[in-house]
Design brief:
GO molecular function: DNA-binding transcription factor activity; transcription cis-regulatory region binding
Structural class: alpha/beta
Protein name: Ribose operon repressor
Keywords: DNA-binding, Repressor, Transcription, Transcription regulation
InterPro entries: HTH_LacI, LacI/GalR-like_sensor, Lambda_DNA-bd_dom_sf, Peripla_BP_I, PurR_sensor_dom
Strand content: 15-25%
Order of helices and strands: HHHHEHEHEHEEHEHEHEHEEHEE
Shape: elongated
Distance between the termini: 73 Å
Low-confidence stretches: none
Pfam families: LacI, Peripla_BP_3
């Protein structure tokens, strides 16, 4: 395998000149640049990313800890992160924790061993990473993305889930519904808790009573929405409208309603949350609260790069504003 010294020897220049041509960090005459490029092509030379990272003390690599599931929301956020990393010249190493604390610590150590320049964390684990793992490495800039309830001391980017829950519930109330149920996400997760609190606030402001059986706490998954909707349909007085804490559970609720020979929105109206790519293709298209997933990924990468360059700057909490996307799953009552 050819080295930079081989390129320099063939081109008749110093290794520093070869480095300047490759990195474009200093002026080199056109004739010399052409000789170096010809030598690189002739020798089929590939610059060593490891050597460059050791010299620059930066790998241009970002690590991401993520809890994945059947919920498409995660994949859509990762898509935004990957696109932003590519546009900014960074590589992304993705590690799935699968909701397992031991696996999270193992993945974290793997990323730190690879000398990532910064970490994006979007995990559902309530307990934070092992302090023992973190203590073995210098402080790494960190940005928490929406789903990280544990303290990190880094920047946080999140959706205003309380406002989103309020908007969704008020939309059902304004449509004329009074019998409104909530299929909420797991309450140990801050977004799920805030969306549920937004629902409760809107119902309280409208002076609407909520039967205990109209509130079901589920898991943000398709099956959770399906099972929860079946419980609501089995009630003597089932609700006429549903606020689902995310679109995945709303999709599951659709299936439960369909399986009972009922229709959305003729028999039951539903509003979801997240505006996943599947939502407009449901039958009927799902009315939902849009969470700006691409913007979440972009802001997270931008903030992490800022933190790398400004390690002493104060930590920030950046809040994204959710918006209603009106489709056809809610009828006027």
């Amino acid at each position: 395998m050819a080295t930079m010294k081989d390129v320099a020897r063939l081109a008749g220049v110093s290794t520093s000149t070869v480095s300047h041509v490759i990195n474009q960090n200093r002026y080199v005459s056109e004739s010399v640049t052409l000789r170096v490029k010809n030598a690189i092509e002739q020798l089929n030379y590939a610059p060593s990313a490891l050597a460059r990272s050791l010299k620059m003390n930066r790998t241009n690599t970002i690590g991401m800890l993520l809890t994945t599931s059947n919920n498409p929301f995660y994949a859509e956020v990762v898509r935004g992160v990957e696109r932003s990393c590519y546009e900014r010249g960074f590589s992304l190493i993705l590690c799935n924790t699968e909701g397992d604390l031991q696996r999270m610590n193992h993945s974290l150590e793997t990323l730190l061993q690879k000398r990532v320049d910064g970490l994006l964390i979007m995990c559902t684990e309530v307990q934070g990473p092992s302090k023992e793992v973190l203590s073995r490495y210098p402080a790494v800039p960190t940005v928490m993305m929406d789903w990280s309830p544990f303290e990190s001391g880094g920047d946080i980017i999140q959706d205003n889930s309380f406002l989103g829950g309020e908007i969704a519930t008020r939309y059902l109330i304004d449509a004329g519904f009074t019998q409104i149920a909530c299929i909420a996400g797991p309450q140990d997760k801050s977004p799920a808790r805030a969306r549920f609190q937004g629902f409760m606030q809107a119902m309280k402001q409208a002076s609407l009573k909520i039967p205990d059986e109209y509130i079901i706490f589920s898991d943000f998954e398709f099956a959770g929405g399906f099972n929860s909707m079946n419980k609501l349909l089995a009630l003597d007085n089932p609700p006429k409208a549903i606020f689902a804490g995310n679109d995945a559970m709303a999709v599951g609720a659709y299936q439960a309603i369909f399986s009972k020979g009922l229709k959305v929105p003729d028999d039951i109206s539903i509003i979801g949350y997240d505006d996943i790519d599947l939502s407009p293709y449901m039958i009927p298209p799902l009315t939902t609260i849009h969470q700006p997933k691409d913007e979440l990924g972009k802001l997270a990468v931008d903030q992490l790069i800022f933190r790398m360059d400004n390690p002493e700057a104060d930590a920030n909490v950046l809040v994204l504003t959710p918006k209603l996307v009106e489709r056809q799953s809610v009828r006027s009552n």
